[in-house]
Design a protein that fits this description.
Blueprint lengths: L3 H17 L9 E6 L10 H18 L7 E6 L7 E7 L5 H18 L6 E5 L2 E6 L11 E7 L7 H20 L6 E8 L5 E8 L5 H13 L1 H5 L5 E4 L3 E6 L31 H40 L8 H5 L8 H7 L8 E5 L2 E7 L5 E7 L7 H11 L10 E7 L2 E7 L7 H4 L10 H21 L3 E3 L8 E3 L5 E3 L6 E3 L6 E2 L12 H6 L1 E2 L1 H17 L15 H10 L16 H14 L10 H9 L39 E4 L3 E7 L3
Antiparallel strand pairs: 1-4, 2-3, 3-5, 4-5, 6-9, 6-23, 7-8, 8-10, 9-10, 11-12, 12-13, 13-15, 14-15, 16-19, 17-18, 20-21, 22-23
Helix pairs in contact: 2-3, 4-5, 12-14, 12-17, 14-16
């Protein structure tokens, strides 16, 4: 028998361990719900009866003893018009009891929150439940995004924190996507700044294919700057997948273990071990002592190895990226296409397949043997885009993945041919619409706003969130391609330059780009940085709003240029003078706000321009008061030279904003709908 003093000591130690051990957030917390707009039903009708049957089946399936994988997809109803489909998913690390409890709560709650809608979704910390009158099994759905973030911010070394976060989430994506039909889930941690540990979690609904899960999570990662820039924690939740990160443990330690193979049942992480023999206790104590000795040693070794890797990587990346030998391209066999394959796809580069032509060469439409439609950029022998630019584009774009970047499928470097193979983007480039008096009418304000936001997010990915830090250097309307849904995709990376993680500026004696879009420090001194891309974005934003090209701006008979006219209109309180007359409908407050953002981007002094993270925030958060812009660069001398506007800062109202924001004590959240 254990003597009382020793029992008291053990009890005290146990209570101390329970008090100090990190525990996840309570799983019954309701994160958000959404009631769809696809139609309503009557409670006494067939659809309502099928829905009640389905929700009852979800609860029954969750409480069944023979199935406990935490994922359920069910249907109810006979005719297509009355069929209800449902997906229920528990977080991959929670135990059976917590999963069942969460789903038991979610079924009646979703019926209460959305009593008459044919489509709904509800999410808790531990589980998610959704139903719809359309088929949702195996279909990737990113039509609606829910954001939640920690209010604490990262104050130092933001770029390094973002890089650590990106490396962590990228590593988890592959592990989750390669899961099986019952579990697509991964967690991990890494050392962040100041020796803090950064934790990450990603999960897809297991009915998705590996490719769809991967693309869903990549899209979720790309939204982190939009919702959680500089935050110490945040999450992005789509109907089909979700990600979360934080500087504290928010999942159970059992999640690190390999998932059990069917039909074994996962054990609740809160359940005590069943074997409590004295031998097991000795082994556990020995393991604790070994961990105490091993962890500092391993941590020191990893720290030294990490420092060495960073030093070596920095030395390699500081070399001129454009000097990569051509053999490195040839070694990328997975991206290399056979010339005969491309000739067959384009009907030997026939004129009937020609999509466009420029100084670099010609773009052709092609169809591969498997039916995939492609776009082939064929560089001419005397192309302005030489060998170095060709290598740049292959080595850069092939390693980038973002919804607002054109996707490079491969290349061909055979005989004298230099070919780049891209995904097909059916609506050509932005300049074909925005500068055409007829086609621009297809771009209402909602579409233009969507294009502006997409370009900004694409640039932010290049500057801060991709594995590589890239300066585009030639952002303009003709390099923005539009897909079938008019989503923008940044293209043409032939002149892009690579920066190392902590690099802020570089210089070149070879100034390339398009006049009008180039920042003054780049044109005059060859200096370029993320702020020179910001300048180009500002010009492009003002072009999109005005419908006029920077190089061909006309204001009656005057010689005033676009930047000068925009600056004068804003200073005089008449920014609406700049707005394209074809934009008859749309929120003028939002348009005026965008003009002010554009003017902030084209300020003459580089340090005064915002980075793209701030730009994305200003475009998406209408509650933020914008700073006053100063005089733009390159305006004609007929414009007054005062630096700032002689009036107070403009505070834009939110009368045109349809988003919602919810706040809690430690976190903030936002739900953002996106068109299907």
């Amino acid at each position: 028998m254990i003597d009382p003093p020793r029992s008291a000591v053990l009890l005290l130690l146990l209570l101390l361990a329970l008090a100090t051990a990190p525990t996840p957030a309570h799983g019954s917390e309701l994160l958000y719900h959404f009631c769809g707009t696809t139609g309503n039903f009557t409670a006494n009708g067939t659809y309502g009866a099928n829905l009640n049957t389905l929700l009852t089946s979800v609860v029954a399936a969750a409480n069944a003893t023979d199935v406990d994988y935490g994922f359920y997809n069910l249907s109810a109803g006979g005719s297509p018009d009355e069929t209800v489909n449902a997906i229920a998913l528990c977080r991959g690390d929670v135990g059976v009891a917590d999963c069942r409890s969460c789903l038991n709560d979610s079924a009646p709650e979703i019926a209460r929150q959305c009593p008459g809608q044919k489509e709904a979704i509800i999410a808790y910390d531990y589980c998610m439940l959704r139903y719809s009158n359309r088929s949702i099994f195996g279909a990737r759905d990113i039509s609606r995004a829910f954001y939640r973030w920690n209010n604490k911010i990262v104050t130092n070394n933001v770029d390094q924190f973002n890089q650590v976060l990106r490396n962590l989430t990228d590593g988890l994506v592959h592990r989750a996507a390669s899961g099986n039909s019952t579990r697509k889930f991964a967690v991990g941690n890494t050392t962040a700044l100041n020796f803090k540990t950064l934790y990450g979690l990603v999960q897809c609904t297991p009915d998705l294919s590996q490719q769809d899960c991967n693309s869903c999570l990549v899209e979720a990662i790309s939204r982190i700057p939009e919702c959680c820039n500089q935050k110490q924690g945040g999450r992005v939740i789509f109907p089909s997948c979700n990600i979360r990160f934080a500087v504290y443990t928010f999942f159970y330690a059992s999640a690190y273990e390999s998932p059990p193979s069917p039909p074994q049942s996962p054990v609740s992480p809160l359940s005590p071990p069943t074997n409590n023999t004295s031998t097991k206790g000795k082994d556990t104590n020995s393991g604790h002592i070994a961990l105490i000795i091993t962890i500092p040693t391993v941590g020191l070794a990893l720290l030294i190895a990490g420092i060495l890797c960073i030093c070596l990587r920095s030395r390699r990346m500081k070399k001129n990226f454009e000097a990569v030998p051509i053999d490195e391209i040839k070694n990328a066999e997975s991206l290399q296409y056979d010339l005969n394959t491309i000739r067959a796809a384009t009907n030997d580069f026939s004129d009937t397949n020609k999509l466009g032509q420029g100084g670099f060469g010609t773009v052709y439409k092609g169809t591969l043997a498997n039916g995939q439609v492609i776009a082939v950029k064929r560089l001419s022998a005397d192309s302005r885009q030489g060998d170095q630019e060709f290598k740049n584009e292959v080595l850069l774009v092939a390693r980038l993945q973002h919804r607002n970047l054109v996707r490079l499928l491969g290349f061909c470097l055979e005989r004298r041919e230099r070919l780049l193979i891209y995904e097909i983007v059916p609506n050509s480039s932005l300049d074909h619409f925005i500068f055409d008096s007829v086609r621009r009418r297809q771009l209402d304000w909602e579409r233009r706003q969507k294009i502006i936001g997409g370009i900004a997010r694409g640039l932010l990915y290049l500057h801060e969130d991709s594995r590589l830090r890239i300066i585009h250097r030639d952002l303009k309307a003709s390099n923005i391609l539009l897909d079938a849904e008019m989503n923008p995709k940044i293209s043409d990376f032939g002149t892009a330059r690579l920066f190392v993680v902590d690099q802020t500026q570089d210089a070149t004696s070879r100034v390339v780009g398009t006049y009008g879009y180039m920042a003054p420090e780049y044109v005059m001194h060859g200096l370029f940085s993320v702020k020179s891309d910001t300048f180009s974005f500002g010009v492009l934003l003002l072009e999109i709003i005005s419908g006029q090209k920077i190089s061909r701006f006309r204001n009656g008979d005057t010689t005033e240029d676009l930047l000068g006219y925009a600056w004068r209109s804003w200073r005089e309180g008449t920014p609406s003078n700049l707005i394209d007359p074809s934009l008859a409908n749309g929120c003028r407050t939002e348009m005026s706000r965008c003009i002010q953002v554009g003017l902030l981007c084209v300020q003459e002094v580089e340090a005064d321009r915002p980075n793209m993270g701030a730009v994305v925030l200003m475009l998406s958060s209408h509650s933020t008061t914008l700073p006053l812009p100063s005089r733009p660069a390159f305006i004609l001398p007929s414009i007054p030279q005062s630096n700032t506007a002689p009036r107070a800062a403009v505070t834009h109202s939110n009368t045109c904003e349809d988003g919602q924001t919810q706040e809690s004590v430690n976190e903030a959240s936002m739900t953002k709908p996106y068109p299907r």
